[in-house]
Design a protein that fits this description.
198 residues, alpha+beta, Gyrase A, domain 2, 4 strands, transmembrane helix, Extracell_DNA_Util/SecSys_Comp, PilN domain-containing protein, PilN
C-alpha cells in the first residue's frame, strides 16, 4: 500500500485560510474604520451646523430681548405722554372755569345777598355769605339752578346772624359746576374755526 502524505497540502490550505481570514478581518476593520470616520465626520458636521444655528438663534433672541426692552420703554414713555396730554387737555378745557364761575356768580347773585367765602373742591363749590332775608337765599338758589353753567344748588344751613348791628341770614350752600356744557361750548367753538364760521 502506498502512503501519501497530505500534511503539507493541509498546511497550505490552513495557511491560505488563515491569510484569507486575516485579510478579511483587516478589510472588515478597515471598512469599519471608514464607516466610523464617515459617520463621525457627518455627525460632527451636523453638530457643528446645529451649534452654529443655536449660536445664531441665541444672538437673534438677545437682539429681540433688547428690542422688547426698548418697546417696553417706548410704551411707558407713550403712556406717560398720554397721561400728560390728558392732564393738559383737562387743564385747557377747565382753564376758563374760574372766570366763568365768578362771572356766573356775579350775574346770578340777587340784590341783598353778599358772599363771604367761596371754596371749590373739584366740580363742587361751597358758598358762604349773608342775605337780608331767607327769601333772598331762595332766590339765589333758583338763579343758580337756572344757570347754564351751575347746577344742583343744595342748601347746607341758614341761621340768623348780626352784621353791623343789622339782623341778617347767614347761609351756606353747595353748587356744582356744569362741566359737560362748558366742554360742549369749547368743542363748538373749535369746530366753528377762526372767526366763528364753520
Amino acid at each position: 500500500m502506498i502512503r501519501i502524505n497530505l500534511l503539507p497540502h493541509r498546511e497550505e490550505k490552513r495557511k491560505a485560510r488563515r491569510q484569507q481570514f486575516i485579510l478579511l478581518s483587516a478589510l472588515m476593520a478597515l471598512a469599519g474604520l471608514v464607516v466610523w470616520f464617515i459617520g463621525h465626520t457627518l455627525i460632527a458636521g451636523y453638530v457643528d451646523g446645529q451649534d452654529a444655528k443655536n449660536a445664531f438663534l441665541k444672538q437673534e433672541i438677545a437682539a429681540l430681548d433688547k428690542d422688547i426692552v426698548e418697546i417696553k420703554g417706548l410704551r411707558e414713555q407713550a403712556e406717560a405722554l398720554l397721561s400728560r396730554k390728558q392732564v393738559i387737555e383737562s387743564l385747557q378745557t377747565n382753564r376758563t372755569e374760574t372766570v366763568l364761575v365768578f362771572n356766573e356768580l356775579a350775574r346770578q347773585l340777587p340784590e341783598g345777598v353778599y358772599l363771604k367765602a367761596l371754596k371749590q373742591t373739584g366740580p363742587r363749590i361751597n358758598l358762604v355769605g349773608y342775605a337780608q332775608s331767607n327769601a333772598r337765599v331762595s332766590n339765589l338758589m333758583r338763579n343758580l339752578e337756572a344757570s347754564p353753567h351751575l347746577q344742583s344748588a343744595d342748601l347746607v344751613e341758614v341761621k340768623a346772624a348780626v352784621l353791623n348791628t343789622r339782623r341778617v341770614s347767614e347761609f351756606s350752600l353747595n353748587v356744582s359746576v356744569e362741566r359737560a356744557k362748558a366742554q360742549d361750548g369749547i368743542e363748538a367753538k373749535g369746530a366753528a374755526g377762526p372767526g366763528g364760521k364753520p
